Amino acid sequence: MAGKPKLHYTKGRGKMESIRWLLAAAGVEFEEEFIEKKEDLDKLCNGGFLLFQQVPMVEIDGMKMVQSRAIANYIAAKYNLCGKDLKERAWIDMYVEGTTDLMGMIMIIPLQPADKKDKHLALIIERATTRYFPVYEKALKDHGQDYLVGNKLSWADIHLLEAILMAEECKADILSAFPLLQAFKGRISNVPTIKKFLQPGSKRKPQPDEKYIANVRKIFNV
Amino acid sequence: MSGKPKLHYFNGRGRMETIRWLLAAAGVEVCLCGSLLFQQVPMVEIDGMKMVQSRAIANYIAAKYNLCGKDLKERALIDMYVEGMADLNELIMSHTFQPAEKKEQHFATIVDRATNRYFPVFEKVLKDHGQDFLVGNQFSRADVQLLETILAAEECKPDILAKFPLLQSFKARTSNIPTIKKFLQPGSQRKPRLQEKDVKRVMEIFH
């Protein structure tokens, strides 16, 4: 049964969502096995399937890959989403690390104590609109092309779209000062594989709710 | 003086140290730029780019100097190992910034993770293939990162490798690679561990 990658994670976004986006954008069908309770995680751990006793884990091409960045690197490289040379890759990596930082902040909102949530959200909005989005807006402005790097769809574009949508869930008009990013969002959302992923019934996961967070806390002891 | 990568950071380890290790291991001379600060550091001027984001910088250097394995699968293994070690390194680095009442617990976590989660993996890797290097029988960034992490862990607990004989010989062997040996000597660009007295200053810079 060679072929489809198999994703092991909880039934939510977390550190696996970017990998789902990447596979979907590359047009790669995949399977998922969900960790629903602590025993599921223990079983994976005790079976020696998790190199550092952690998920995400993706079974792909005969490997049991862990570490979300390593997994994403492999998929992006395999499906030619890494630029054409080292320098393009450097730019893609820089852009992706920026959106990783931003999404990392958004991801932990539900884990903030109630009295710190507002402040954390305010910080996210500030960082998004003064540190991160201006960089991507400028990149698009400077070269006037449809994609961030090398005039071709890359991991950087997919990751930026994911980050934009996540940021809009925090503040619906967060792109108001960024016309090129608005156009970018429209454009990239229309790439056929991505359009499909954005439709109901795809493997894209919804925003975490209270019940999901409570379960995650139990499973991972956080 | 064109050509030499230029490093912008404060005068300490932080997120630049791994990059210093990689450049040193690849035998690349660098130009030091004092403590210019931008909205984002580390920043490295290299090959006409002003690169930010420590992982992007490290990826570029490692790929440029052939420290990434020979194919996608070797690279996948190297990336997994490097990311795991980066997690441990991050944990160790954050120890200096822990509030006093949390330091002991944090220290225990470092030792537990190092000896139960991370080091056993690399000991097993070396045992299983019996080779000198972690991946592909060839020196790679995974080996550089492992040595960096081992030394940082030993600064926390000198006998932390007590149960890992293969890691001990790995440490000795890798430390003797000429470029690395040079980096480990006084006068190199390697930075010392952050002292308590400098914590306040660093937090002021970055917060």
UniProtKB/TrEMBL annotation, chain A:
Reaction catalysis annotation: RX + glutathione = an S-substituted glutathione + a halide anion + H(+)
Presence of keyword Heme: no
Ranges for domain GST C-terminal: 85-209
Protein name: Glutathione S-transferase
Matching SUPFAM superfamilies: GST C-terminal domain-like, Thioredoxin-like
Keywords from the named record: Transferase
GO molecular function annotations of the record: glutathione transferase activity
Limits of the GST N-terminal domain: 3-83
GO BP field: glutathione metabolic process; xenobiotic metabolic process
Protein family membership: Belongs to the GST superfamily. Alpha family.
Enzyme class of the recorded protein, top EC level: transferase
EC number, UniProt record: 2.5.1.18
Organism: Piaya cayana (Common squirrel cuckoo)
A Pfam family the protein falls into: GST_N
From TrEMBL, chain B:
Annotated SUPFAM superfamilies: GST C-terminal domain-like (SSF47616), Thioredoxin-like (SSF52833)
Domain named GST N-terminal: residues: 3-69
EC number assigned by the record: 2.5.1.18
Stretches that traverse the bilayer: 21-38
EC primary class: transferase
Any Pfam family: GST_C_3
Record domain GST C-terminal: where: 71-194
Gene Ontology terms, MF aspect: glutathione transferase activity
GO-annotated biological processes: glutathione metabolic process; xenobiotic metabolic process
Domain of life of the source: Eukaryota
PROSITE patterns assigned: GST_CTER, GST_NTER
Keywords assigned by UniProt, alphabetized: Membrane, Transferase, Transmembrane, Transmembrane helix
PANTHER family found in the cross-reference section: GLUTATHIONE S-TRANSFERASE, GLUTATHIONE S-TRANSFERASE A1
Family membership noted in the UniProt record: Belongs to the GST superfamily. Alpha family.
Protein name (database record): glutathione transferase
Organism: Piaya cayana
